[in-house]
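User: Fold this one for me? It's Adenosylhomocysteinase like 2.
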Amino acid sequence: KQEFNKRPSKIGRRSLSRSISQSSTDSYSSAASYTDSSDDETSPRDKQQKNSKGNGDFCIKNIKQADFGRREIEIAEQEMPALMALRKRAQGEKPLAGAKVVGCTHITAQTAVLMETLSALGAQCRWAACNIYSTQNEVAAALAEGGFSVFAWKGESEDDFWWCIDRCVNVEGWQPNMILDDGGDLTHWIYKKYPNMFKKIKGIVEESVTGVHRLYQLSKAGKLCVPAMNVNDSVTKQKFDNLYCCRESILDGLKRTTDVMFGGKQVVVCGYGEVGKGCCAALKAMGSIVYVTEIDPICALQACMDGFRLVKLNEVIRQVDIVITCTGNKNVVVREYLDRMKNGCIVCNMGHSNTEIDVASLRTPELTWERVRSQVDHVIWPDGKRIVLLAEGRLLNLSCSTVPTFVLSITATTQALALIELYNAPEGRYKQDVYLLPKKMDEYVASLHLPTFDAHLTELTDEQAKYLGLNKNGPFKPNYYRYENSSSSLC
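Assistant: Here's what I get for Adenosylhomocysteinase like 2.
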């Protein structure tokens, strides 16, 4: 009540779920974010802020939100058991002592737990956001108050986005020797602006489909200067973050932004990879009629066997109520399809990049944009037809809602172990190429999360281990093994 009484009455509509105010100059505010509490539209780049210790090496929305952010981080810690266990087990050894990690990821409470774990393990960190809408301003404030050099706020412009990355990298007296990236933008910026930095960089850890694709392109062209770890295709990332996380967060994001009823709705999901499987399973369980588009015959066959009708987008675009992209590609939903959509059709993206929906084609004089909620736009045609565009085609779950902390614990632990592996690897173990996380590490990440469920692993006897040709302590599966899930079994 006291918080609401402090707010000017003219701010207007608020999300009552967890957010108590709107944020940023564009009023972009996550429903999970205690964001800016004033009408101050001054760009963070024009502010001079310092934390309680007098340090000003950061650029965030409002340092006064640090207490709110600290509470968010403390909540996240409770659901990230593996990182907390790793922090306790390895803190004495300091396996990242001397590491200077520059990161570009979503800046959320879960990322903060990862950053503070890396710091506890001996690393110095500088961080920017990989998405202009996903930063939790109060968490960025808590990190800045804790001494981290963070350059991010919710609602950055494109220019702000690259400026923040540059501020992380281009600093006198500090040069990174490790990169933690989500989407490849940080790696791209260093290659473009500061290629000599790679002489001291030991490795890159990348967690997204988009970023990994860029790394493989560099490797194929012979331009990859350092070893890179493909975390995205590790079992713990693919099977847990991409699948289970999206299975829950797709509903959360759609509900918070549109209050839509899923039962009976016709939905087309573009792409049936792990993200698509999770989205389809969730929507099917809620009673939606789900169509799938795919280019890969194997994924297409999986969709059919899971009970979904495989279509081309142009076959159903006039009738569907919701369009969801999760391909990692570009121009999946182009202007031709947007023109043919029914009135009120909801359009959103669950892929990392904002290239899947051709939003630029909608910024024309004959179309009217109407902001109806934070992260929700009505795009109105001359005849009165309107579509509901979420997060301007950017990542729905991290822009409009939250993601399950426990699943992010799995991904963050995988990232931490990948950094430790690359940083401490003897010279020659990894060449200038892209590598998958060793299977043994994947199994270790999974084992750290089992105690949460009071789960008890069965142990092989010596005779059984010999019969299977395995070490009793793992790894238990060959690298080519696929841990497949049936989407229908998840419903």
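One thing worth pointing out: Confidence is low (pLDDT under 50) at residues 3-39, 486-491.
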